[in-house]
Every structure is written in C-alpha cells, then in structure tokens.
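Encode chain A's predicted structure.
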Amino acid sequence: MDFDALADLSDEAIRLVVDEIDRDDWSIALKTGSERVKSRLYGVVSVDEAREIKEKTELAGPVRLSDVEYVQLSIVLRVLKLDHDGKLEIPRENDPF
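Encoded structure for chain A:
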C-alpha cells in the first residue's frame, strides 16, 4: 500500500484515518499527494475541516520531499495498523477472502 491508495478506502475508513492523524501531518502529506487523494479526503470531511487542512498545507510553505515522504509513510503505517486491528478494511485486489 502506498499513500495514493488511501483514495481506494471507503468513506468511513477515510473519515477514521482523518480523525486519527494530526492536521499538521495531513498538511505536509498532501503537499505531493495526488489530486485523487485530495479530492477523496476533502469530499469526506466537513467543509470547515477541508478548509483548515488546505490552509495549513498552504501555510506550511516549502517542505523537503523526504519530510513529505516520511509523513506519508507514517500515515500509511497507521492505516495498516487500523486494518490489522480490524478498525477498517483495505481493499485488496484478487483477494479470495
């Protein structure tokens, strides 16, 4: 799973992940996030939450790519843990179960 795969999660799963991750981390992670991820995230949260995350992303200024990738990886690891704990389900291609 990579950061762009977050767009494949259900609305409920995205909502859970948004609530689990600090807004400052989202603002950094979305610096290089795909439009699909941004669109899915902003479509699930309230208008106020979307505006807050967008503003923090803009105000964050330049961020090193390695820092963005680190935060994205930490979000992916959190999603994997939530999946492992049974709190959300990650869609898997060709999963017979």
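Residues 42 and 48 are 10 Å apart (CA to CA).
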